[in-house]
Amino acid sequence: MALTFVPSQDLTGNLRDDLRHATGPAHLRLDTRIMALDVATRSGLVTFLRGSASALQTLAPVLDSVPLPSCTPLRDAIAGDLSYLGVQPDPPPDRGLHLDANGALGAYYVIAGSRLGAQVLKRHHAKSTDPSILGADRYLTAPTGLGMWKALLYQLTEMNSETNGAAVIAGALDAFDVYVRAFEALEPGEKTHDDE
Prior knowledge:
This protein has a single domain (15-185), classed as Heme oxygenase-like (Heme Oxygenase, Chain A, Up-down Bundle), CATH 1.20.910. The chain has 7 helices and no strands. It is globular and about 50 Å long. The termini are far apart. It has helices spanning 15-35, 42-63, 72-84, 101-125, 131-134, 145-157, 161-184.
């Protein structure tokens, strides 16, 4: 069930605060799903990587339109981790998400924020005793997070929440929903290169 933003909600004029407030329930829903995965195990890590890859593939055209640091290195890092683990990536989605420039910035907010959240997952991942799991760390250790977040915050401070806020918030909610649906759609088990 996708959450929607009601434009009649009072916006404070601070787009970062408005985003945090309006997307809080969607953020919690996604965090709860991801934190239930044990990324120190093969099955938890593979599920996390597959869900993240699917969501990033869906959001790629939108994210690539945002004039901020590229998300391509993140997609490449996930692909590298899946390959290292011998797991076939899922096919690209049939359709992407279509958002205007403000909505795309909202989607970028979700990705940039996820890089900060990856620091928590990185600590859990490091507790693994399996060298093959520890070797699949490209995505969790990708150095793009802080740069993405700082560039986004600068962009948000330059925008008027009352003028652009509803579209940015709607785009963020759409991106959270893409992530949740990506994890919900995963089938049990995994495809390996040996299954080809």
